[in-house]
Amino acid sequence: MDIKNSKEIIAGFVERYNFSHIFTDSGLPLGKEAAPLRLSAGEAVEFLLSSALTGSKVIGFFDRLPAVSVKRSLRGECIFVSRRLPEKIDVPTLFCRRSGDIASYLVLALKTAADCKLPVSVVISDDALNNYADPVKTVCDLARTSPYLHPDTFKNLFDGASFASCAAVAESAFSSALGSGETEGGVLSFSDNDLPFFPYLLPGILPENAENLKGKTIKIPAGEALAVVSMLNNSYALAVSPESAGEEKWPETADFLCPGCPFVNIFARIRDKEAVFFTDIECEGALNFFPLNRVSIESYMGLLSESLNVKTVFIGRASGYKPCYDGLLKNGRVIFLNDCGLSGINICASVKHPKKITGEKNALFPYGCGNIKSYSKVRINPKKCRCIKDGVPPACAEAVKCPAIYVKNDVAAIDGNMCTGCLACKTACPFGAIS
Amino acid sequence: MNYRIMTGGYRFKTFDTCVKLLIYSAKESDYIISVRGRAGLSPASPSLRSVLLTGSSKKTYNGITLDFDGIFGNDSDGIILNPEILGLDAEPSACHYWGMLGALCKVISDVSPAYVTGYLLEKNMKKELEIFTKFSSQLPFALQVAVNESMKDTAD
What we know:
The structure holds two protein chains of two kinds.
Chain A: E1 4-5, H1 6-16, E2 21-24, H2 41-53, E3 58-62, E4 78-82, E5 93-96, H3 102-116, E6 120-124, H4 126-129, E7 132-133, H5 160-178, E8 200-201, E9 217-221, H6 222-236, E10 241-245, H7 262-269, E11 276-279, H8 284-289, E12 292-294, H9 297-304, E13 312-317, E14 333-337, E15 349-350, E16 363-365, H10 395-400, E17 405-408, E18 411-414, H11 424-428
Helix pairs in contact in A: 1-3, 3-5
Chain B: E1 3-9, H1 12-28, E2 32-38, E3 47-54, E4 62-67, E5 79-81, H2 83-86, H3 95-107, H4 114-122, H5 126-137, H6 141-155
Parallel strand pairs in B: 1-4, 4-5
Antiparallel strand pairs in B: 1-3, 2-3
């Protein structure tokens, strides 16, 4: 069968071009990392730029690309791939909206990054990422897009003029490959392929046809309005007013959280429901389902530096811990998710199994989102399972949103292949049917 | 005839294979295919796909909901195929996915099940082949009546 899904196409590209370093956001399993880089998105951008500065070929996959500050021309190629529109255009950015274009856009980004000595960003829409295409046999000889460029051309330290000349190289490559696109007004949409959008944008260079948008009202689907307007206003001071346009209707579906999800286990067992919960983990599922407020660990430490009238709990990556936080933590509570195999943290009690999380002030949870551990499998006693017979959905499934729980013959059952043995479901069963 | 198939499932590997086989089989039957996908909130969220099969110049599409794991709410429209309606048990092995795919091939009568049959034979998936063949040759009576009614309305 010749058809590949978008993730297979991206994986094929990464494998073909031998990247020295690959970063993947925890909620976006697109890239294959030989050794996982336990970094926040901002730290990852700095790391990848530093690597490319020394000549390495690097690629990073992000949910949304954070701000990128380029101070020097790069010796190696640097590509950022993301699925959400950036808040600002800091680097040459391609917008890929069809799965069939993914391979060619990534190759164009690689070639352009090599020539213009800037990182290149490729934003791939959700529709393109969750789609299929015939595999495109794209031959990339990595030949220079301009025969007149020489490695010494960009030897000098960056100034505004140097950056502009690099970006101009990118524009030349993009416009000859993609054209300028139809963006005169009317309805713009990044996610709807039937509507136009910019094929690419460059920092500081206003697209010719975007001039027509200044001060006008354009229609953007409601779900995208904030991102598109923010991007255009922040980068080009374009005053555009969004009007909502129609969006494709998707049916309501049951939603799930990952089997063994640390948040499910923490909220199933934590007794202090009055506390305000914070996290630096980027998982929309967890943020949507639990009463979490997203802040960085530095911001949380800033909160703790003043005495608070409420109890607070921070759930974050153990890789973000620094010993200098110890003094502040007496004013709050942290649960670090052990995403980097730490043997322990001074101020935290190490928890061996998720079921042991209750009762500890500061805790080191046994795993993070990207390295969920498996324990002994869980079983449901069909004789004790009564929810469905009583005419209600299984309480365990409703509480923990675990895809490993399914219904068979009017009783709940556990899929042994998916179950991690975290026992979060056991806390939710009112009949003691789970062991 | 034209069809809009809304499908979703959370046994990702089998779901992906089934959608690819559907696309390939429909292409072989000379349909023009357009697929839209949507990401969920978490990595465990069900995959959702909207597959448009265009076989005629009419502007109308028959709606089919192919709900592999019974995860769709009550707002689904058109012909609904889910494990409960087909009398299938949702199994961890995702064997029921093949029965549902077979039912879809029966509903869209001009999509040949041959390619799927060949794939299952090649992979030596006997149980899956048996259940696929069962549902691609005959639907439950009530469902067949609903399909006939739906196709008659569209033809009118």
